[in-house]
Design brief:
With about 450 residues, the chain is α/β, with parallel strands linked by helices. It is built from 12 helices and 24 strands. The chain has 2 domains: about 220 residues, Enolpyruvate transferase domain (UDP-n-acetylglucosamine1-carboxyvinyl-transferase, Chain); about 220 residues, UDP-n-acetylglucosamine1-carboxyvinyl-transferase, Chain, CATH 3.65.10.10. About 30% of the residues lie in helices and about 25% in strands. Bound molecules: shikimate-3-phosphate and phosphoenolpyruvate. Pfam families: EPSP_synthase.
């Protein structure tokens, strides 16, 4: 099976099912809309895993209903954690770090968060588990996390010919404390996973970063949320080292904030059509790094207003190009920038994002292949691309089983006739309601 084919097993009951193609009709006028975006995937899956480890009950509101969250909840239930999904909240009965099902198999779906956070959280417990991901998740890197967990006492046996990926058997007898050295150069989720598990180590644990972290902000989100649930953590500035006390999380009521990554597609819609979009339920001071995509849009000539309720982006007559942008610290928006870049008045170079070759797809390769198939000139480098201005033509595009490819490519359809997206249901990883939301802001989409 090629990586372009959908891994439908990873689609959850919360997914958009039964659709094969999204045909987008270009906007006939600038998009002017107010939008409310669903809960953050990153915050949702941290809250679920931390609440499961905690002592006492947690009541989580604003939980995202998407594949990533669904499989995280299912994995926790498989481990014997009681998780009740109510209309207004998800209620998690904490285990105090002792997993009721000490010998079972868990499936993490396609989510990097569930795979990295649960592997670490289990390693801090006692038991023997098989951990599997979706077809793509089973190819994504885990090696540096396995190495660090092994150094602290976990026994990890690969269950495929690839030693550094899922599926694995994990035999856990708790994590020793002390100091562990880790790389953050491939994925910040390795660091977040280790930190989330750290309060359950046998003694205080210091995580020292040997190189750099690709997306620091996600580690800050982890540290903030650990503290919110009662953990005692200290970090050096720049996150070169973090020290976690061995003291449990305490269950609590917690409100999940809106997803800044999802918001970006709607701001980009305003940018592309010369319209105006307010995302009502996000603040500029969120820790989520993708909010800074509005800074890139401002550089491209958009007016950005963060002073009132929500964040407003107003698009210019013509987007500005002629710039180089490091997307390292908000790399989930690389596809969004790449797919609006052809409409700018000069080339745009994107740098420092080699790590996104290991995301849901090889995203740099996908940018090159997709834009070239639309008649746009692109140069590819190991860590980025340069995209030249042009006039894309219509085409049927693969979504490469990658939610962000489908969402970002839809933006091209707002201004180019004849754009069709294959397997639109892949948006379900983080935003099953994406096409409904586009329709709400006036875009005509035929889902067949
Ligand atoms: O911790 C998180 O919630 C995330 C970290 C980032 O991953 P990497 O650090 O692996 O790039 C980001 O791309 C992902 O969407 C969410
Ligand atoms: C990289 C992503 O997801 P994850 O690593 O959580 O699977 C993403 O949502 O773009």
């Amino acid at each position: 099976m090629s990586s372009q084919e959908a891994d439908l097993h990873a689609r959850s009951p919360w997914a958009l099912h039964g659709v094969h193609l999204a045909a987008i009709t270009p906007a006939t006028q600038p998009i002017v809309a107010d939008v409310i975006v669903p809960g953050s995937k990153s915050v949702t899956n941290r809250a679920l895993v931390i609440a499961a480890l905690a002592e006492g009950v947690s009541r989580l509101s604003g939980v995202l209903r998407s594949d990533d969250a669904y499989w995280c909840i299912e994995a926790l239930r498989q481990l014997g954690v009681r998780v009740e999904v109510r209309p207004e909240a998800v209620v998690v009965e904490g285990t105090g770090g002792s997993w009721p099902n000490a010998n079972t198999e868990v499936y993490t779906g396609a989510g990097g968060t569930a795979a990295r956070f649960l592997t670490s959280a289990l390693a801090a417990g006692h038991g023997s588990w098989v951990i599997r991901g979706s077809r793509r998740m089973n190819e994504r890197p885990m090696g540096e996390l396995f190495q660090a967990l092994t150094a602290l006492g976990a026994v990890i046996t690969p269950m495929s010919e690839r030693p550094h990926t899922l599926p694995i058997r994990l035999e856990a007898n708790g994590l020793t404390g002390g100091t562990v050295h880790m790389s953050g150069a491939t994925s910040s989720q390795f660091i977040s996973g280790m930190l989330i598990a750290a309060p359950y180590a046998q003694s205080p644990l210091t995580v020292e970063i040997v190189d750099h972290i690709v997306q620091h902000a996600y580690v800050h989100i982890t540290l903030d949320m650990m503290r919110d649930f009662g953990a005692r953590v200290k970090e050096l500035s720049g996150l070169s080292a973090m020290q976690v006390e061995a003291s449990p999380y305490i269950g609590r009521e917690y409100e999940i904030e809106a997803d800044a990554s999802t918001a970006c597609y709607f701001w980009a819609a305003a940018a592309l059509t010369g319209g105006q979009v307010r995302v009502q339920n996000l603040r500029y001071d969120t820790r989520q790094p993708d909010v800074h995509f509005v800074d890139v849009l401002a550089q491209m000539g958009c007016a950005v207003d963060t002073s009132g309720q929500g964040i407003v982006v107003r698009g210019p007559e013509r987007l500005r190009g002629g710039m180089t942008v490091s997307m390292k610290e908000m790399s989930d928006q690389t596809l969004t920038l790449a797919f609006i870049a052809p409409f700018a008045d000069g080339p745009i170079s994107i740098t420092d994002v080699e790590h996104i070759r290991h995301h849901e797809s090889d995203r740099l390769h996908v940018i090159v292949e997709t834009l070239r198939s639309l008649g746009i000139a692109v140069d590819e480098r190991a860590d980025g691309v340069t995209i030249y201005p042009g006039a894309p033509h219509g085409a049927r595009l693969s979504s490469f089983d990658d939610h962000r490819v489908a969402m970002a490519a839809s933006l091209i359809g707002l201004v180019v006739p004849g754009i069709e997206i294959e397997d639109p249901g892949c948006v379900s990883k983080t935003c099953p309601m994406f096409f409904d939301k586009l329709q709400e802001i006036g875009i005509n989409i035929a889902l067949t």
